[in-house]
Amino acid sequence: MTAAPLRLRLDSDALISNWRTLAAMSGTAACGAAVKADGYGLGAREVVRRLAGAGCRDFFVATWSEALVLADLGVAISVLHGLRGEDLPAAISAATTRPVLSTVQQARRWREAGGGACDVMVDTGMNRLGISPEDVATGLLDGLRVETLLSHLASADEDVPLNRLQRDAFAALAGKSGARRMSLANSAGIALGRDYAFDLTRPGIALYGAVPVAAFEGRIRQVVTPEVQILQRRCVPAGQSVGYNATWTAATDTEVAVVNLGYADGYLRCFSGKGRARAGGVEMPVIGRVSMDLTAIDVSAAPDLAEGDWVSIDYALPAVAALTGLSQYELLTSLGARYDRMWY
Ligand SMILES: *Cc1c(COP(=O)(O)O)cnc(C)c1O
């Protein structure tokens, strides 16, 4: 197979360093890793292999098909979206994967099927997935082997009273569910302090270089940099336009490179006229409209860049989120399947 004309440069040291930082901030709690959505777009298998090597013992995916992709790695995986009827055969036969039961029906289904260890999600105010604290109090979990009781914070990235309310509602369940461990904090939740860490934290986005709260500034390193190949270099004469709908017109004769990157690769149209590429320390602006598979950049400042050369795309998540209005989560998870994913 030939190499793709676009790739993600993935920094193993930064990924591991971010996990260690989050683990240290988790205090005495263990630190897991959310690797749903294919490791937030980086590639779940490679993320799991690296973090398991660094000492991470708990991994979280959304669905059973995501868990199956990781099954041979021998790590403990929790499936956040629980246990539909059609998931039962896979769940019963899985060696190291547990469902995160999140409805009354799922808890009954798992008990009736004679399932082994499971996790349980309890809703403490987000009203997304989870059984209610009352369900726990009235014995729904009796007879189940609950490894971890989870809840999820709705606004961990903001300083709002809901955080404390959710934490207290969760803490009130200590000793009542039969669970061996309790887990509440995502990335931003870790920054809320030790009160929120319980026995196990579950960061996702900050592992991959995002800075959801100021407490992570200067401590979390960038992991992902897209690199793309120049397919054509041309001089656009003054007065001519570039790209769909001719949204950019050359004021003077301009050197333009067309690179193999577009909105089908997650480089959405909000980067039009705003994104930046870089080569050899020279910064080059995106010009005109981003197409499905192609983007034009002004390479006037880089006279040596030629057809076939690679340029990197500015992708520092906090800055690029501010620039485009996309969330740091969207910026990672929309990176498509066409990139070669290269770990260094
Ligand atoms: C996605 C997710 C996480 C990780 O959240 P981040 O904000 O990416 O750190 C943790 N717990 C649950 C239940 C999740 O769905």
Bound compounds, please?
Answer: pyridoxal-5'-phosphate
Tally of separate helices:
11
Runs with pLDDT <50, length 5+? none
Helix content: 25-40%
Q: So what's the overall shape? A: elongated
Largest sheet: 7 strands, parallel
Secondary structure class reads alpha/beta
Distance N to C terminus:
21 Å
Architecture overview:
The structure is a single chain. The protein is an alpha/beta fold. 25% of the residues lie in helices and 24% in strands. The protein has helices at residues 12-25, 36-40, 44-54, 64-70, 88-93, 104-112, 133-137, 161-171, 187-190, 317-324, 328-333; strands at residues 6-10, 30-31, 33-34, 58-61, 76-79, 97-101, 117-121, 145-150, 181-183, 200-201, 224-236, 241-242, 248-249, 254-259, 276-279, 282-287, 295-298, 310-313, 340-343. A hairpin with a 5-residue loop joins strand 12 (241-242) and strand 13. The radius of gyration is 23 Å and the shape is elongated. The protein binds pyridoxal-5'-phosphate.
Key terms:
alpha/beta, 11 helices, binds pyridoxal-5'-phosphate
What's the gist of this structure?
The protein has about 350 residues and is α/β, with parallel strands linked by helices.
Write the layout of secondary structure elements.
Layout: E1 6-10, H1 12-25, E2 30-31, E3 33-34, H2 36-40, H3 44-54, E4 58-61, H4 64-70, E5 76-79, H5 88-93, E6 97-101, H6 104-112, E7 117-121, H7 133-137, E8 145-150, H8 161-171, E9 181-183, H9 187-190, E10 200-201, E11 224-236, E12 241-242, E13 248-249, E14 254-259, E15 276-279, E16 282-287, E17 295-298, E18 310-313, H10 317-324, H11 328-333, E19 340-343
The chain binds pyridoxal-5'-phosphate (PLP).
